[in-house]
Amino acid sequence: MLICAIDIDDGKLAHAKRVGADLVINAKTGDPATTLKKETGGGAHGVLITAPSLGAFKQGVAMTRKRGTCVLVGLPPGEFPVPLFDVVANCITIRGSFVGTRQDMAEALAFAVDGKVKADIELQPLSSINQIFDRLEHGNVASGVVLDFAKGFDRLEQVDVASGAVLELARG
Questions:
Q1: For residue 47, what pLDDT is reported?
Q2: Does residue 167 surpass a pLDDT of 50?
Q3: pTM of the complete model
Q4: Domains of the chain as residue ranges with CATH
């Protein structure tokens, strides 16, 4: 199985490569659907689109191979015109969902138990929350950030989170 990652950020593509992607494609440098079809000999069996972008949705359907499945996660603004001829002629399944079912969760956990999922997190103390929000706002978080509430502060006052709210925490 070939794992492919497509993004417009070279840093995120490098990260995808580090965590196991076999092929990375920068969508800014050309047509990712054409590149993916060439590299895979016909396109992807399964495409998961998490970017809330109509362009990403269109590219995802275009890179799905005959009898493949394209899953749309997220909700970009506007209408999504589906290329009906291509979808019908190639028997492509398009699915979308806001949330998963219990069965979806069981299957996801089975992937993790089988070692098919690598959790790539960055553990940070709660005291660094402002820097984390700044990094998130600027797209400088490659994976996920987990806040450690147990260490890293004795008293933290007036933490300015992204919404401008004030937070007071004291270690007990």
A1: 94
A2: no
A3: 0.64
A4: 4-113 (3.40.50.720), 121-170 (no CATH)
